[in-house]
Design a protein that fits this description.
single chain; Fumarase C, Chain A, domain 2; Ribonucleotide Reductase Protein R1, domain 1; 3 domains; 20 helices; 62% helix; binds arginine
């Protein structure tokens, strides 16, 4: 097989060896191969339908591409650095197999609209895989939340015990984040799913191309409406990576909590051994490596987002070779996300919850102080005054080293005469939870309702 560059005719000396390696992308863009073939077949069918190439040429292209696809899938395709990228490798192989028909494939097309099409097809499939995995993770969250709809734990603000919540309610906060994450991806998918082919190098094609036909064949929702924009902008990839960075950010926050909660100081949860490692020096250690790496890999995805934004910002219209640098950050983002989501869904299924540790943590932080203030408000005390009364009662309990619920009625009367025996019902964590029955509240029956609704909407 000849290794001459398809564009070598204009040049009087061969490319420097380092430059060849520097400019080649085949080592990473061969990953687009199946989508490149899919795009080429749709393009060739359109060329034949428009009588730009013959039906015989189309048949040869189809049979040649089928063989190439088999070779690639079997790992037998020989990728050559000399042929620069995935597109030229496949085209050259096709021409070696079917002759002139292979050389006609590139009529009315440029690698500029070809690569933009391949990346969109690849990213569309990746988004669909990611959406499936988000759903699986959401199901894991729902299952765990259901078991703990009534498990009391401290809710925190400033990482200080604030008010009692249920563990199920806390978990459902992450369900909501992932719901919005999925929505962002579905929205971004619409803008990914537009066809660049037909834009050719930048100015469109002089042949009577039928772009709508190609879009339909490839399952695109429509065609990119401006040829210069079609070959040059990668905003769809940036948008996707921004959505990915948010998913990772949410999982990073969740990871931070799992790391804290699994430390003996909290002791709220135990992460299954298969997600942890030991220390080479300290025999007692069980380290939460997986959540730590999720937190760490968030930095890498955020970095990919910045890389893509920076890649785009100085480019004049239309296509520039800079865009070849879009692939590695994009591939890395998708790979990181697929692994992270898969691992997370399973890791949550292996979480053991220490309900006693959660409950005793609530009792340590005067978590029902707000409930006592609300109790006084219901008896006619203005909220600001009630706040002050309760602050004094907390101060007193703290000095005594007990919880508000441990103070006798006579002691509470020192702060307000309005307090009666029924106050003890709301001074317990369960009493506090039970009052928060509105949509979005943490009362166990409300949490159960939220879980049921979420399960139904997830389908
Ligand atoms: N490998 C190139 C890329 O990823 C394909 C397009 C090359 N176009 C060109 N005019 N050199 O962007």
């Amino acid at each position: 097989m000849s290794k001459d560059k398809v564009w070598s005719g204009r040049f009087s000396e061969p490319v420097d060896a380092l430059v060849k390696r520097y400019t080649a992308s085949v080592n990473f863009d061969k990953r687009l191969a199946e989508f490149d073939i899919q795009g080429s077949l749709a393009h060739a069918s359109m060329l034949a339908a428009q009588n730009i190439i013959s039906n015989e040429d189309l048949a040869s292209i189809k049979s040649g591409m089928a063989e190439i696809l088999d070779e690639i899938r079997a790992g037998k395709f020989e990728w050559l650095l000399d042929l620069e990228d995935v597109h030229l490798n496949i085209e050259k192989r096709l021409t070696d197999k079917v002759g002139d028909a292979g050389k006609r494939l590139h009529t009315a097309r440029s690698r500029n609209d070809q690569v933009a099409t391949d990346v969109r097809l690849w990213l569309r499939a990746s988004v669909d895989d990611i959406l499936d995995l988000i759903k699986k993770l959401q199901l894991s969250i729902l299952d765990l939340a259901e078991q703990h709809a009534g498990t009391v734990m401290p809710g925190f603000t400033h990482l200080q015990v604030a008010q009692p919540v249920t563990f199920g309610h806390h978990l459902m906060a992450y369900f909501e984040m992932l719901k919005r994450d999925a929505g962002r991806l579905q929205d971004c998918r619409k803008r990914i799913n537009q066809l660049p082919l037909g834009a050719a190098a930048l100015a469109g094609s002089g042949y009577p191309v039928d772009r709508e036909l190609v879009a339909k064949t490839l399952g695109f929702d429509g065609v990119c409406e401006n040829s210069l924009d079609a070959v040059s902008d990668r905003d769809f990839a940036i948008e996707f990576t921004a959505a990915a960075a948010l998913i990772m950010t949410h999982l990073s926050r969740f990871s931070e909590e799992l790391i804290l909660w699994s430390s003996p100081r909290f002791g709220f949860v135990d992460i299954a051994d298969r997600y942890c490692t030991g220390s080479s020096i300290m025999p007692q250690k069980k380290n939460p490596d997986v959540p730590e790496l999720v937190r760490g890999k968030t930095g890498r995805v955020n970095g990919n987002l910045v890389a893509l934004l920076t890649l785009m910002k100085g480019q004049p219209l239309a296509y520039n070779k800079d865009n070849q640098e879009d692939k590695e950050p994009l591939f890395d983002t998708v790979d990181t996300l697929l692994d992270t989501l898969t691992i997370y869904a399973d890791m949550l299924r292996g979480i053991k919850v220490n309900k006693e540790a959660m409950r005793s943590a609530v009792l340590e932080g005067f978590a029902t102080a707000t409930d006592l203030a609300d109790y006084l408000v219901k008896k006619g005390v203005p909220f600001r005054d009630a706040h002050e009364v309760v602050a004094k009662a907390v101060h007193h309990a703290e000095a005594k080293g007990c919880d508000l619920a441990d103070l006798k009625l006579e002691e509470l009367h020192k702060f307000s005469k309005l307090v009666e025996k029924d106050v003890y019902a709301i001074l317990t964590p369960e009493g506090s939870l039970a009052t928060r029955r509105h949509i979005g509240g943490t009362a166990p029956e409300q949490v159960k309702k939220a879980i049921a609704k979420a399960r139904k909407n997830l389908g």
